[in-house]
Amino acid sequence: MQRIWTTAQVRAAEDAALASTPAGALMRRAAFGVAVQARRLLLGRSGGVAGRRVTLLVGAGNNGGDALWAGAELRRRGVAVTAVLLDVDRAHRAGLAALRRTGGRVVDAAAEPALARDRVCTAELVIDGIVGISARGPLRPSAAELVDAAADGGVPILAVDLPSGVNPDTGVVDGPAVSAAATVTFGARKPVHVLAPHRCGPVYLVDIGVGPYLDAGGDPHLYLPELADVAARWPVPGPTDDKYTQGVVGVAAGSAVYPGAAVLATGAAVLATSGMVRYAGPAADAVRDRWPEAIAAGSVVDTGRVQAWVVGPGIGTDDAGRDTLAAVLAQDLPTVVDADAITLLGAHPELRPPGRTAPLLLTPHDREFARITGGEPGADRVAAARRAAADLDATVLLKGNVTIVADPGGRALAHPYAGAWAATAGSGDVLSGLLGALLAAGLSPWWAASCAVYVHDRAASAAASGAPAPASRLLGAVPAAIRALRSGASLRRPAWG
What we know:
Layout: E1 2-4, H1 7-18, H2 25-44, E2 53-58, H3 62-76, E3 80-85, H4 93-101, E4 105-108, H5 113-121, E5 125-129, H6 141-152, E6 157-160, E7 182-186, H7 191-195, H8 197-200, E8 203-206, H9 211-215, E9 222-224, H10 227-233, E10 248-252, H11 259-272, E11 276-280, H12 284-290, E12 295-297, E13 308-311, H13 319-329, E14 335-337, H14 340-347, E15 360-362, H15 366-373, H16 381-392, E16 395-398, E17 402-406, E18 412-416, H17 427-440, H18 445-464, H19 471-476, H20 478-487
Parallel strand pairs: 2-3, 2-5, 3-4, 5-6, 6-7, 7-8, 10-11, 10-13, 11-12, 13-14, 14-15, 15-16
Antiparallel strand pairs: 1-9, 16-17, 17-18
Helix pairs in contact: 2-3, 3-4, 5-6, 10-18, 10-20, 11-12, 11-17, 14-15, 17-18, 18-20
């Protein structure tokens, strides 16, 4: 698991590290890391780095200082470096002096706006040192014009710590902001790097020695599951296992109107593990035709013994759907509550028996989230998921391009999807089937959510392969995603680097 820290946690760790290191040491380490990545980007565009043109967008404070010191490092490699100062009076003095000593050029953006724009447009790489993790809000007009000039000219931007103008703790953009080709961050990843990956590009972490101070300051704000975490927990049969010991999952899904939801959710549960799937609902014929290995019954009470339930996809919100949800929740087993079941539970919270102790895993998208909590997630989706998990005493999987999972104890993770390929009808039914199978196999809701979302993402990417694909094709790619997971392979390079 990668650990993600808030900007307040990082600042506190940096302050503690600064007290025990020589003046300027942390900034020089950070700047060296920026210069290394800048050289890599330049080399990737062809040739060596000597004579290549780099422009620094330099704001006030330490982020501007990081950019200036990085510029000095690049000058020593023969790169032609120009610093465009957005606030001359507040530019980092030591960094500015270092750049000038190495022969770097300096332009005052306010005094020479045409020259500043020219230096941006004619650069081969722009380094964003406009604002740091303490800043909030969009770019000011003068900075936004230069960032737009880089975008219009196709000049890639390397962000220092984070793309300027993007909220560092929520990833929200409410005005002009940088879209980086890559980001170099220091000491620890911040929430922006996983909540706004499309703005950050690949994120490269530079160790500047603050790790021990972060560990001493409390728990991380977020976790980011990695391939090894999921591979170690995905259930596979052992020599003493049988279909029962691997987990029996019940799927209460589908209706005469929506039989496909039953087929997709059941199929995902069948493909996720080697245990057993019992289907309960009016789409039994459709399920048997597609998944003969599933044991189908007409109702929840006739299903037989299961170890976890999936309820909701396609059951409807009428009396029949309500009765189905009530019957599942009455069994007091680990349960995935999805789709129509979320809407029903939001309208009828009394359906959850007061003595129930087994865990619930709720899987809302934003509109379903509003139905069960009374309000939209808002800008801070992590905080919203945490509040909902605590209020509902359930693990909440808030769907989105960046999916958030929060448990009742306050622990949260984020998973940035590789793209929007999973944003298709029926994709959520597939996810629910994966989740239910993993709960039945004995995983906690937290780890079931972590693992299922990870495989769901990779299956969506594999199914699409660069072109839109329906949920049935995503479902068909689940075995390949699990196979790649177990072999240690990756079906794609993660968007966060």
